[in-house]
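Figure 6 in text form: structure in, sequence out.
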């Protein structure tokens, strides 16, 4: 993780607008430590499903065809601006968000190490490989691990079927996966780290869920003007997790 986009000097790199009255999320580059929220996300799933490659696509918009298995844990970072929606569809507030994306090893031998990181994450990218039925069957086990080790039993999760660019090798049909996601009441996306299909959409959906949950908790705890750039308003992963009173 030598180079992060936000470390480069400059201004807006690209903008991604989420249609349909949803908040907008914009990718930006920044040189300083000025942000409103530090959000920790964590990718999990069997070895080889494409966690590392997916995160690399999200942060650097590149594809790495080589399989270099992750040893233990790694992370990538990215800055975005999250725009809330005001009443009647008007523009709300804009928050600078520093995303920390934790990349866990799928291999069993690292399990006790990686699950220890679950507690500090605010949202989860639960991944399987559309070309591997076994990786899909193992989603249930990953869910149990999450429920046992995350900050609460009902954390924000997005289910991701990756490698959608390989239809000839597909072993998991979309209905199966959607049914499972519905059972857990979580969003489902079919992505490709190779083509970039729905990679940003999946991460942005997760961020949106987290921001909405935080908003609700802030309202509940009656903290006035919690963010807005003031240092007292910064919520790091741990503080935010404590505030997740919805659990
Ligand atoms: N065609 C295709 N290949 C992919 C995709 N995503 C990942 N891969 C390939 O799948 C292999 C495994 O990807 P990784 O990202 O290393 O898998 P991982 O889940 O991080 O594996 P561990 O680190 O062992 O847990 C690599 O060769 C990737 O290039 C995808 O969307 N499409
Ligand atoms: Mg990896």
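Output sequence:
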């Amino acid at each position: 993780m030598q180079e992060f986009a936000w470390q480069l000097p400059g201004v807006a790199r690209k903008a991604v607008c989420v249609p349909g009255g949803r908040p907008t999320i914009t990718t930006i580059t920044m040189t300083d430590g000025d942000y409103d929220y530090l959000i920790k996300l964590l990718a999990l799933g069997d070895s080889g499903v494409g966690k590392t490659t997916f995160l690399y696509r999200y942060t650097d918009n590149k594809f790495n065809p080589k399989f270099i298995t992750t040893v233990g844990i790694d992370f990538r970072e990215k800055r975005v601006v999250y725009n809330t929606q005001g009443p009647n569809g008007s523009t709300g507030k804009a928050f600078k968000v520093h995303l920390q994306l934790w990349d866990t090893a799928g291999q069993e031998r690292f399990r006790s190490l990686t699950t220890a990181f679950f507690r500090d994450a605010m949202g989860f990218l639960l991944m399987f490989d559309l070309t591997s039925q076994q990786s899909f069957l193992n989603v249930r086990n990953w869910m149990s691990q999450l429920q046992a080790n995350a900050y609460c039993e009902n954390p924000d999760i997005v289910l991701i079927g990756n490698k959608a660019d390989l239809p000839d090798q597909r072993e998991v049909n979309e209905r199966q996966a959607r049914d499972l996601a519905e059972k857990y009441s979580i969003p489902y996306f079919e992505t490709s780290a190779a083509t970039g299909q729905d990679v940003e959409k999946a991460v942005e959906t997760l961020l949106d869920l987290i921001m909405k949950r935080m908003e609700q908790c802030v309202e509940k705890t009656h903290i006035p003007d919690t963010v807005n750039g003031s240092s007292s308003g910064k919520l790091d992963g741990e503080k935010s997790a404590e505030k997740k009173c919805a659990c």
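Caption detail: The chain has one domain: 20-220.
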